[in-house]
Design a protein that fits this description.
512 residues; alpha/beta; GH; 9 helices; Immunoglobulin-like; binds acarbose derived hexasaccharide; eight-stranded parallel beta barrel; disordered N terminus; TIM Barrel; globular; A-amylase/branching_C
Length: 512
C-alpha cells in the first residue's frame, strides 16, 4: 500500500514535467504583456503555422494599477484578486484566446502569482484592474476574500517583516519579497483559494503554469496545491494529462535554497543557462564556445528532464531578478540570435523564447527608471495592439523576437530534430563549433575573430540543403545560402567572422 501511494505521488509529480505540446512542436514563447486578443490572432496566423508549441502569458488575474506617473510592467505581479480581468483583457477575451490557441494546437501556460498579493504600501481604494476595492495596509482583499489571518505577518521573524537575508531560508519563505504581502500558503483556506483559481484556468483549457517566486514558498505547501489541481481539459488533452508546472526558482549557487528542493514538483527555471551562455558568447572570463561540448548537466545544471531553459527572461533582460550583465537580449541582436540558435539546436531542457517590448534606456522626465517602463500604451494607459508589418515584423514598439527569421527557423529546426541525439561534435578549440542532431539537422557557429573554413561530418543524407539562418527554403529554391552534403555526409562550410549572422543551420526539411 505504502509503495502504491509512493508510486502514485511520484507518478503525478513526474507528469507535471511534461509540457503536453502537440503536433511534434517543442519551443514555447513568452508573449510578455501581450493582450489576449493579439495572442489569439498570433496563435492562428503565426505560431501554429511556424511550429511554436505554446505561449507563456502574463498574469491574467486582477492586479494593482500603479501610476508612477505611468504604469510599470510589474504591476501585474501584485495581485488584488483572482478575478480574470487584467491589463491584457477581460475574462471573455482570455477564454476566447485559450480556445482559439488550443484549436490550432498551441498551448497556453499561465504565469501564476500565488506567493503574495500587492505591496504593503499599495494603499487603499479601487486602483485595480477590475476595479475591486482593497486595503493593503489592513490586509483586506474582499474580492478573494483574504484578510489579516491569511498572511505570514505573524510567522516572519525579521524586524522589518521583509526578506533581509537570502542566507536564511525561513525568512525567504515567510517574509515579504520586496514589500509584497506574503500569503500564508500553509493555511488550508489560502490553499483552497489558490487551487480554485488555478483549476478555473485548467478547466478553461490552459496546459499549465509558470509559477512565480517559488523560492519564496515552501515545497510542501506547493506540493499540497499542485496535488489538488485538475487534469487538463479533455476537449484538447488526454483525460489523464496533468498540468505542466515550471517553477521560478533563481538558483545561481551560494544560497541555502536550491532548485533541487523543487524538481520533484515540476520543472524549474534553469537560470545558470542564460547567465553562462551570455558569458560564453560575449567571450568574457576567457570562456570559449568549444567548452560547451558537454553543455547542460556537464556544466552543473539540473537534470535535463527538470529544466526549463531560456537566454533571457522578462526580469533579467532589464536588470531585475538575477543573471547579471552577461545576459544577452534583443539589444545585442547579433550575439542574441546565435545564443537563441544554440539553445534551440541543443537537446537540453524545455526551451522558452522571449518576445519583448522595447524600452528606452534613457531615463526621461516621465519615467523614473528605464527598467520599469510598461508595454506600448495609449494615452489612457491601455496596452496597444501588436500591429504586423508587411515584412512580418511587429510595429509600435513590440520587438517580436519570435518572428525574427533566424529564431523562427530555429524553432522549426528544434521540431525537426526532436528526439535525435546530440552528435557529430566539432570544434577548433576556440569559438568555432558545430554539432548535429542525429541524421536530421546540423548547425555551425563562428564566434571567433577570423573566418571559419572547414569540411565537417554532418550526419545528414547527401543532397542540397538551404541554410535556415541566412534564408530558408522557398518552393524549389533557397532564399539564402546553399550547403551541399556529399553522399558520405560531409559538407564544406565557410563563415566569415564579419557575416551579419555568423552561423549556418541545415535540416532535412529544408533539403531541396
Ligand atoms: C515592485 C517595485 C519594488 C516594490 C514592490 C512592492 O519594483 O520596489 O517594493 O513593487 O511595491 C516584479 C518586479 C519587482 C516588483 C514586483 C511587484 O521585478 O521590481 O516590485 O514585480 O510589482 C527575487 C525573487 C524572484 C523575483 C525576482 C524579481 O526570488 O522570484 O526577485 N522574480 C519574480 C518575477 C518578477 C516579480 C516577482 C517575482 C514578484 O519574475 O517579475 O517582480 O511577483 C537574488 C536572489 C533571487 C532574487 C534576486 C533579486 O539573486 O537569489 O531569488 O530574485 O536576488 O532580488 C547575483 C546572485 C543572485 C542574486 C542576484 C541579485 O546574480 O547570483 O542569486 O545577484 O542580487
Amino acid at each position: 500500500m505504502k509503495l502504491l501511494i509512493l508510486v502514485t505521488v511520484l507518478g503525478i509529480s513526474l507528469a507535471q514535467h511534461d509540457p503536453h505540446t502537440r503536433h511534434g512542436r517543442t519551443a514555447i514563447v513568452h508573449l510578455f504583456e501581450w493582450r489576449w486578443a493579439d495572442i489569439a490572432a498570433e496563435c492562428e496566423r503565426y505560431l501554429a503555422p511556424n511550429g511554436y508549441a505554446g505561449v507563456q502569458i502574463s498574469p491574467p488575474n486582477e492586479h494593482i494599477i500603479v501610476t508612477n506617473p505611468w504604469r510599470p510592467w510589474w504591476e501585474r505581479y501584485q495581485p488584488i484578486s483572482y478575478n480574470l480581468c487584467s491589463r491584457s483583457g477581460s475574462e471573455s477575451e482570455l477564454r476566447d484566446m485559450i480556445t482559439r490557441c488550443n484549436n490550432v494546437g498551441v498551448n497556453i501556460y499561465v504565469d501564476a502569482v500565488i506567493n503574495h498579493m500587492c505591496g504593503s504600501g499599495g494603499g487603499s481604494g479601487t486602483h485595480s484592474s477590475c476595479g475591486s476595492w482593497f486595503n493593503a495596509g489592513n490586509r483586506e482583499f474582499p474580492s478573494v476574500p483574504y484578510s489579516g489571518a491569511d498572511f505570514n505577518d505573524g510567522k516572519c521573524k525579521t524586524g522589518s517583516g521583509e526578506i533581509e537575508n537570502y542566507g536564511d531560508a525561513n525568512q525567504v519563505r515567510d517574509c515579504r519579497l520586496v514589500g509584497l504581502l506574503d500569503l500564508a500558503l500553509g493555511n488550508e483556506y489560502v490553499r483552497g483559494k489558490v487551487v480554485d483559481y488555478m483549476n478555473k484556468l485548467i478547466d478553461m483549457g490552459v496546459a499549465g503554469f509558470r509559477v512565480d517566486a517559488c523560492k519564496h514558498m515552501w515545497p510542501g505547501d506547493l506540493s499540497a496545491v499542485f496535488g489538488r489541481l485538475h487534469n487538463l481539459n479533455s476537449n484538447w488533452f488526454s483525460g489523464s494529462a496533468r498540468p505542466f508546472i515550471f517553477q521560478e526558482v533563481i538558483d545561481l549557487g551560494g544560497e541555502p535554497i536550491t532548485a533541487k528542493e523543487y524538481v520533484h514538483l515540476g520543472r524549474v527555471t534553469e537560470f545558470k543557462y542564460g547567465a553562462k551562455l551570455g558569458t560564453i558568447f560575449r567571450k568574457w572570463n576567457n570562456e570559449k564556445l568549444y567548452y560547451t561540448s558537454n553543455w547542460g548537466e556537464g556544466w552543473g545544471m539540473m537534470a535535463d528532464g527538470n529544466a526549463l531553459v531560456f537566454v533571457d527572461n522578462h526580469d533579467n533582460q532589464r536588470g531585475h531578478g538575477a543573471g547579471g550583465a552577461s545576459i544577452l537580449t534583443f539589444k545585442d541582436a547579433r550575439l542574441y540570435k546565435m545564443a537563441v540558435g544554440y539553445m534551440l539546436a541543443h537537446p537540453y531542457g524545455v526551451a522558452r523564447v522571449m518576445s519583448s517590448f522595447s524600452w528606452s534606456s534613457e531615463v526621461s522626465s516621465k519615467s523614473s527608471r528605464y527598467n520599469d517602463q510598461g508595454p506600448p500604451s495609449n494615452g489612457d494607459g491601455s496596452t496597444k495592439p501588436v500591429p504586423i508589418n508587411a515584412d512580418q515584423t511587429c510595429g509600435d514598439g513590440w520587438v517580436c523576437e519570435h518572428r525574427w527569421r533566424q529564431i523562427k527557423n530555429m524553432a522549426i529546426f528544434r521540431n525537426v530534430v526532436n528526439g535525435q541525439p546530440h552528435s557529430n561534435w566539432w570544434d577548433n578549440q576556440s569559438n568555432q563549433v558545430a554539432f548535429g542532431r542525429g541524421n536530421r539537422g546540423f548547425i555551425v557557429f563562428n564566434n571567433d575573430d577570423w573566418n571559419l573554413d572547414a569540411t565537417l561530418n554532418t550526419g545528414l543524407p547527401g543532397g542540397t540543403y538551404c541554410d535556415v539562418i541566412s534564408g530558408q527554403k522557398e518552393g524549389s529554391g533557397c532564399t539564402g545560402k546553399q550547403i551541399n552534403v556529399g553522399s558520405d555526409g560531409r559538407a564544406h562550410f565557410s563563415i566569415s567572422n564579419s557575416a551579419e549572422d555568423p552561423f549556418i543551420a541545415i535540416h532535412v526539411e529544408a533539403k531541396l
